[in-house]
Design goal:
Blueprint (H helix, E strand, L loop, with lengths): L2 E7 L11 H27 L4 E6 L4 H8 L4 E4 L5 H11 L5 E4 L8 H12 L4 E5 L5 E6 L4 H4 L11 H12 L3 E3 L9 H9 L5 H7 L5
Parallel strand pairs: 1-2, 1-4, 2-3, 5-7
Antiparallel strand pairs: 4-6, 5-6
Length: 214
């Protein structure tokens, strides 16, 4: 059974989307994060019915995020010192292979991304990664939970060349890696401007990013 995991921060004012606070304010940033988390939960639920998970930070926000995410997705606290440790700890809880792993910062994350990642795994890839325009990642997929494959999951703390690091790890393990199309995350004022200019931006997000209709 395919599993889906979302890693997300709780939508608390002053704790999320800090780079956007000059434009949106702390409450506006929290509202935006809430919408992104809700959309990521919807994506996971659709991609892996009955095996959708959301790991939340900070741990004390589990109940609030569970209410936000809705039914059909299990919410649990992130644990571990860094992103790699938190991911490994989260995957231990998940009973499913392959597994899709996503953050909540990609507004255009959708069914096509899950289908493309699963298609690459079915074709023989051991891991698949979708990268953002700033060199980060928005989606990863692992063929199974073997410990050596956990090293192929991209770590956001791994420095600028995350994809290069992933490919180097893959080469060392003799693993095949598929690469999805780039997407733009929503973290900076430039990202915000680009998404507002995108005619395909979801109406819910447009209302939060440009409430005046600009």
């Amino acid at each position: 059974m395919t599993a889906a995991l979302v890693l997300a921060r709780a939508p608390r004012p002053g704790g999320v989307k800090r780079a956007l606070e000059p434009a949106l304010g702390p409450d506006g940033c929290a509202a935006l994060q809430a919408a992104l988390v809700r959309r990521a939960a919807d994506w996971a639920r659709a991609a892996a019915p009955g095996a959708a998970w959301l790991a939340v930070d900070p741990p004390g926000a589990v109940a609030d995020v569970a209410a936000l995410a809705g039914p059909g997705i299990e919410v649990f606290p992130q644990s571990g010192g860094g992103v790699a440790e938190r991911l490994a700890a989260a995957l231990v809880r998940i009973d499913g292979a392959p597994v899709l792993i996503a953050g909540s910062d990609c507004p255009r994350l959708g069914p096509a991304h899950a289908a493309a990642a699963l298609s690459d795994l079915a074709a023989g890839c051991d891991a698949v990664v979708g990268t953002t325009l700033d060199g980060d990642w928005y989606l990863a997929a692992l063929a199974d939970g073997r410990p050596e494959l956990l090293a192929l999951a991209p770590a956001r703390s791994a420095g600028a060349d995350r994809v290069g690091g992933l490919l180097a790890k893959a080469h060392a393990l003799g693993a095949e890696v598929g690469v999805l199309r780039h997407e733009r995350a929503l973290r900076t004022p430039d990202d915000m401007a680009a998404h507002v200019a995108d005619p395909l931006l979801a109406a819910e997000l447009r209302a939060l990013l440009a409430p005046s209709g600009a």
